[in-house]
From TrEMBL:
Residues in Lipid/polyisoprenoid-binding YceI-like domain copies: 28-193
Source organism, top-level taxon: Bacteria
Classification lineage: Bacteria, Pseudomonadati, Bacteroidota, Flavobacteriia, Flavobacteriales
SUPFAM superfamilies per the UniProt record, alphabetical: YceI-like
Pfam family, one: YceI
Protein name (database record): Lipid/polyisoprenoid-binding YceI-like domain-containing protein
The species this protein was found in: Arenibacter certesii
Amino acid sequence: MRKFNVNRIVTGMLFMVLLFSNTLTAQKYNLVNGESSLVVLGTSSLHDWEVTAEKQTGLLVVTNAETGALGQLSIEVIAESLKSGKSAMDKNTYKALNTNNHKTILFKLSEVKEVKQNGTGKFKMKTSGDLTIAGVKKAISLDLDLVLIGNKATLNGTKKLKMTDFKIDPPKALLGTITTGDDITIKFNTVLTK
C-alpha cells in the first residue's frame, strides 16, 4: 500500500515539473500591425496589380526557441482592409471576396513538417495549415523563414495561389473588358512581439 502512494506522489510531482517547465519555455508573441506587411500581387489584361492589408492580427507560440519548435500560429486579415489605392478596384475585390458575409481571411497552422536552423535564432520551415478565404477553407503548404531575436519574432514568406481554388471568380471591370488573372502571389513580412 505504501509503495503505491510513493509512486503516485513521484508521478504527480514529475507531472507538475513537466507542466511547469513547459509553461516556462513556451513563449507567446502577438502580431504588430504597424510593423507587419502582407501584399497580394496579381495580373489583369490591362496591368499588374497589388493590394495591401492594412489591418491584421495574429498569435505565435514558440515552444522551444533553441530548435524553433512552434506550438501555434494564426494570422487573421480584415478582408476590407485590403487596399489598392483605387476605390473601384477595392469594390470589385470586396465583391469577389463576398466581404458582406466573410469579414476575415484566416491562416491557422496545423503542422510543422521540417525545421532547418539557418544561424542563431534563424529557421527555415516547411509547414502546412488551413487558409480560409471568402468562407472557403483549404489545406495549404507554406514555407516560412522565422527569426527570433530578443522579444521579437519575424515570419517571412511567399505563397502562390489560385483564386478559383477558393471558389472566387477573378474580378472583371468595364463590362468584362478587363479581366483579372486567376493566379495570385501573397508576400508577407509578419512582425510579432512578446
